[in-house]
Amino acid sequence: MPDQAHPTELLNPAAIPQPRRYPAKGEPLIHQVNWEGLKTLYMKEVRRFFKVQTQTIWAPAITTLLFLVIFSVAMGRGSREVLGVNFATFVAPGLIAMGMMQNAFANSSFSFLAGKIQGTIVDYLMPPLTEGELMLAMVGAAITRAVLVGLALAAAMLLWPGVDLSVAHPWAVVWFGFTGAAFLALLGLLTSVWADKFDHNAAVSNFVIAPLSLLSGTFYVIDNLAPAFQTISRANPFFYVISGFRFGFLGKSDIGDTNLAVLHSAIGLGVLDAVLALIVYAVLRSGWKLKG
Fold first, then answer.
1. Shortest CA distance to 277 belongs to which of 131, 121, 145, 130?
2. Cα dihedral 58, 218, 199, 114 sign
3. Most buried among 55, 136, 149, 161, by the most CB within 10 A?
4. Considering the entire predicted model, what is its pTM?
């Protein structure tokens, strides 16, 4: 009959369906970077904050803009110069950097903490993502939010009379903006792993992030401080982020008398980010406060 197999086909081992072979238990199926999974988690985090962009992007931009308005009016419009420019132009880049850093922290410090409280932390731990991929996706989303807040702030500040955001050194704007946002994103991720409730997260934000941001030279140059307070300010990494970011716009900085000092600060921030990334990676790999 035509639908019957030929006897020679039955004797051919290649014609016999072979059972599917599965890898040994615990053996990974993805041996390289899971780019698709990394992209999926990144997009999930971006869409999460973008759904409420009024709260996560525009509200922080308007709140930070109020600092510019209040301090500019208090100091007198155009009557005071700092680093050779009017006060509004001096303070604007620092406020942009401060807004970027604070929102990078806010974004990355939320996901794990909300997952632990709501019981959805398994959604982050079960997918086939390594600790490095998990960290990269969440930090990348936090940096994305920081960039969007920075752009919104810059656009709003350009409407304020007397503000000049001409860029003198684009590399400094990009590098210090990126490393500053990455530093706070990593710190926020570490905080979300440590925190057990939103009060813990708020404590870090209110008693660590906010003071370091406001006391980082955003509204002043540290040369006006007493020597002891200058030393304390130079131990604050936020100072280098904000002053370096400002250098990108003004071409001047209170980090040092030469551009080489700014370059050293840029390298130092890169090293600091790398060290913090290794710490966060080790914590994620250990499963501390996430598994078990």
1. 131
2. positive
3. 149
4. 0.87
End-to-end CA distance of the chain: 62
Cβ atoms of residues 113 and 192 within 8 Å:
yes
Number of domains in the chain: 1
DSSP per-residue codes, 218-276: SSS-GGGS-HHHHHHHHT-HHHHHHHHHHHHHHS--SS-SSHHHHHHHHHHHHHHHHHH
**What is the C-alpha to C-alpha distance for residues 71 and 94, in angstroms, rounded to an integer?**
13
* 62 located within any domain: yes
Position 69 scores a pLDDT of: 87
Does the residue 14 lie in any domain? no
List Cα–Cα distances, 32 to 11, 28, 38, 133, in angstroms: 40, 10, 12, 11
pLDDT of residue 229: 86
From start to end of the chain, where are the E strands?
A: 81-82, 85-86
Chain centre distance of CA 249: 21
Q: 128 in a domain, yes or no? A: yes
Copy the structure tokens of residue 87.
């006060």
Burial of 115 (0-12, 13-18, 19+ CB in 10 A): middle
Contact 96, 243 (CB under 8 A): no
In a domain, 10, yes or no: no
Residue carrying structure tokens 């300010």: 233
Determine the residue type at 218. T
Alpha carbons 275 and 97: distance in angstroms, whole number: 21
Residue 11 pLDDT > 90, yes or no?
no
Cβ-contact 170, 248 below 8 angstroms? yes
Q: For residue 158, what are the domain limits?
A: 37-43+52-283
8 pLDDT more than 70: no
